[in-house]
Design a protein that fits this description.
Order of helices and strands: HEEEEEE
Number of domains: 1
Structural class: mainly beta
Shape: globular
Strand order of the largest sheet: 1-6-3-4
Largest sheet: 4 strands, antiparallel
Radius of gyration: 14 Å
Number of strands: 6
Length: 101
């Protein structure tokens, strides 16, 4: 019996994935872009105290764990702080977030 993989289609794929996290309350997958130097990356909906469990690069040349480039606990609402001074403005990331509120 073969398993069939069906990719999620459309622009709301993160919402579809997040809907399946209901077995693990408080977990959410978000997407955000890096910035040109250390500073604030827009991450609408995050709250102070939310925990960033992991950050993964999704652009072909930047795939893999990039958690060290960003704060591990949200310190400003609606933002993830980029701690790296490197220009990451052309990069896209996914973060696995544990909502604390």
């Amino acid at each position: 019996m073969a398993n069939t993989f069906a990719p999620i289609q459309g622009s709301d794929w993160l919402a579809k994935i997040n809907a399946n996290f209901n077995l693990l309350p408080g977990l959410e997958l978000i997407a955000f872009a890096g910035v040109a130097a250390a500073g604030a990356c827009t991450a609408t909906g995050l709250k102070v105290g939310d925990v960033i469990l992991s950050v993964t690069g999704v652009v072909a040349a930047d795939v893999g764990d990039k958690s060290a480039l960003f704060e591990s606990t949200v310190t400003v609402n609606n933002q993830i702080q980029q701690v790296s001074a490197t220009d990451l403005s052309s990069k896209v990331y996914h973060a696995l977030v544990l909502r604390m509120s």
